[in-house]
């Protein structure tokens, strides 16, 4: 198996991008990544996307986007794993290059959500839950996460305001990210006064949807030297695991078993432990997911995720910086694109291009993209290659 | 790169399977493949599917199906490439095993189409065309293929009845396939009297949709010996190429450039020529696509595809047998599953399990799955491993 490097990254600002079509959004990010890599085209295009068939009446995004970016005739298809579709496209690109099937691959995540009415998007997001056993009962994703958060607070004695530092950190970091949807800092008071959506989840616990795209170019590590002036970033680990889609079928809804399984494989591949991770772009679709992720990935004891946030350990200067470019909360969560934003942001950190939220001397960064309510979890570890 | 073998196959009958849910269809085929392989579970599950988000209100099929078949915690995601989604799942499984990322993978294609009204399914199928430049103009897939067929007949002087032998062969072969949707032979006269759909395409030129699922288990070739009593089948080649989605943007709408590019790579990988192929499961969604496929893959001169059919060379006893288990025309075309049916059927032929439509001494079989109107084409060559 060949080692693989990330030689180019690109992204567009997460926003209500009504003036750009799906192919323009994906194309802007992909062409940005190609320019960054110094390459003109790629052998393969893997697109991460969840809902283009229903939200944009356009499937078949592989051929659709490959042609648009000047890679007509390239191999191309789409990956879908609900909100972890972006990381699935990166993992597929990695396997394609590692196997020797292709010499270069573009992974691009894209989602265009804000053209449709909110109620329709909520229903389409619910197709990531179990149609028979969850969505059919009227449970939206916010509702599912509210049930988990309520149970977690009950079991571990946390109060609502203890989750505030997750939003405060995300919004503060997004101030330094021109691609983030929000450039509005918030405070503990701002958090506690935010409107309730599904008790106990309020507006500041929940990430915002959006239109966005982010992309990366992968090539064999052995071929990259001398081709770029950027610091060389290699993929040190890639691993995925699933769990039941329906939460009620898990023994413990407050523990992310798939995250634990996925990250154990990743740590083992890379020969690392949690102490070696300089920053962690986790999947803070809801603040409860941030807390659970810190625990399942070995950064906090069970039930103690919020403690890290309260103690400031999740800040760019802390022990395990998270959401360093705004996270899903403040950069925004265009679902099929999110996993690729996380990977692009880690590359920015490792290159030292993260401006005011730069993690000093970052050499190893981890991403974790979650599909459904903890049911499809894909972990990547990127490292500076010496 | 490790060589990969197919150790198990499974499928369900293509039909109006109203009494089975999406997960039951996929599960039946997957469990059938697991039983056939002698294995209990796999490291990874790759699902080929096009329209579950809109037709079944269920996305996230990776986790959904992995859990259902007893592979909870396996890596799992969905591949979409319109009608070539099935072959995309097989190719992803191949890359995953070849790269060493996993030791076993299940590729399963599934589609459940007949619960929705026909008009709705036609609109959902049109999302495989270009939403802005084709579907938005009111062009359905039958209409697009009718335009291609009309032009082809004009350029090469063929009459409508010259396409009849494609349907006659497909329906005759399906008589020997218990998993085929139709067990009704047809004749030249039956073809010419079939109702017109979109002139010149009549009911006997067009494949039928359906509900179906087909699956295969892939493992490293080096680990397979002694684990199965079946003849050993290895993947000799896997290659994909795209073209513009919109047909009007191609120089020549009557030539499948992506097929030619895809198969050239495949022949090169396997060290083979068209003369070495014992049978060819091509993508006869419409009879014009069968003719164009025979030409682009090197079995007929340009414009001479129908000649092979007229001369009986596409029969199981002919020079290049096609649709040997009924093809899309008579086995049926549950879109995201079709590519996997083709692969399963070639394995059956290589094992000698094709009953009355067995190709004698078949040692090398090829499949080609087409997404859109020739815009995403994935070719595989399977061979008996000695």
What is the oligomeric state here? Answer: homodimer
**Helical residue percent of chain A?**
25-40%
Largest interface: A-B, 66 and 66 residues
The largest pleated sheet of chain A is described as: 9 strands, mixed
Q: What's the gyration radius of chain A in Å? A: 19 Å
The count of strands of chain A amounts to 11
Question: Summarize this, please?
Answer:
The structure is a homodimer of 386-residue chains. By secondary structure, chain A is α/β, with parallel strands linked by helices.
Q: Could you walk me through the main structural features you see in this protein, from its secondary elements to its overall organization?
A:
The structure is a homodimer of 386-residue chains. By secondary structure, chain A is α/β, with parallel strands linked by helices. Chain A is built from 13 helices and eleven strands. The first copy, chain A, has helices spanning 22-37, 52-55, 61-68, 85-98, 118-125, 141-156, 164-174, 188-192, 257-270, 287-296, 305-310, 327-330, 335-351, and strands at 4-11, 44-48, 75-80, 105-111, 196-198, 201-202, 212-220, 233-242, 279-281, 364-371, 376-384. The longest helix of chain A has 17 residues, at 335-351. Chain A is globular, with a radius of gyration of 19 Å. In chain A, 67% of the residues are buried. The mean pLDDT of chain A is 96. The interface between A and B is large, with 66 and 66 residues. Strand 3 (75-80) of chain A pairs antiparallel with strand 3 (75-80) of chain B, so a sheet runs across the interface.
């Amino acid at each position: 198996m060949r080692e693989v490097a990330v030689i180019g990254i690109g992204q567009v600002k997460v926003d209500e991008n009504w003036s750009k079509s799906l192919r323009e959004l994906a194309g802007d990010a992909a062409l940005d990544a190609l320019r960054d890599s110094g390459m003109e085209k790629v052998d393969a295009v893997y697109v991460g996307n969840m809902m283009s068939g229903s939200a944009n009446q356009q499937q078949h995004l592989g051929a659709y986007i490959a042609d648009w970016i000047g890679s007509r005739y390239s191999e191309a298809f789409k990956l879908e794993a609900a909100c972890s579709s972006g990381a699935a496209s990166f993992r597929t690109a990695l396997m394609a290059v590692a196997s020797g099937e292709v010499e270069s691959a573009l992974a691009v995540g894209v989602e265009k959500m804000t053209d449709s009415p909110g109620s329709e998007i909520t229903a389409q997001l619910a197709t990531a839950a179990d149609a028979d056993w969850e969505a059919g009962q009227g449970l939206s994703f916010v509702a599912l996460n509210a049930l988990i958060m309520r149970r977690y607070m009950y079991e571990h004695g946390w109060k609502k305001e203890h989750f505030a530092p997750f939003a405060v950190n995300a919004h503060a970091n997004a101030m330094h990210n021109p691609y983030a949807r929000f450039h509005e800092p918030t405070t503990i008071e701002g958090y506690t006064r935010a409107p309730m959506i599904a008790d106990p989840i309020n507006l500041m616990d929940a990430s915002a949807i959006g239109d966005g795209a982010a992309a990366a170019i992968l090539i064999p590590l052995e071929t990259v030297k001398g081709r770029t002036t950027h610091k060389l970033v290699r993929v040190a680990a890639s691993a995925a695991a699933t769990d039941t889609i329906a939460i009620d079928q898990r023994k413990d809804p407050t523990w992310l078993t798939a995250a634990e399984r996925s990250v154990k494989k990743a740590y083992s591949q890379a020969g690392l432990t949690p102490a070696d991770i300089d920053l962690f772009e986790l999947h803070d679709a809801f603040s409860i997911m941030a807390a659970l992720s810190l625990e399942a990935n070995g950064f906090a004891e069970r039930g103690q995720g919020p403690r890290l946030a309260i103690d400031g350990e999740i800040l760019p200067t802390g022990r395990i910086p998270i959401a360093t470019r705004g996270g899903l909360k403040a950069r925004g969560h265009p679902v099929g694109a999110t996993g690729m934003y996380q990977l692009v942001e880690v590359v920015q950190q490792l290159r030292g291009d993260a401006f005011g939220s730069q993690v000093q001397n970052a050499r190893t960064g981890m991403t974790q993209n979650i599909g459904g309510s903890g049911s499809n979890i894909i972990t990547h570890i990127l490292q500076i290659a010496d």
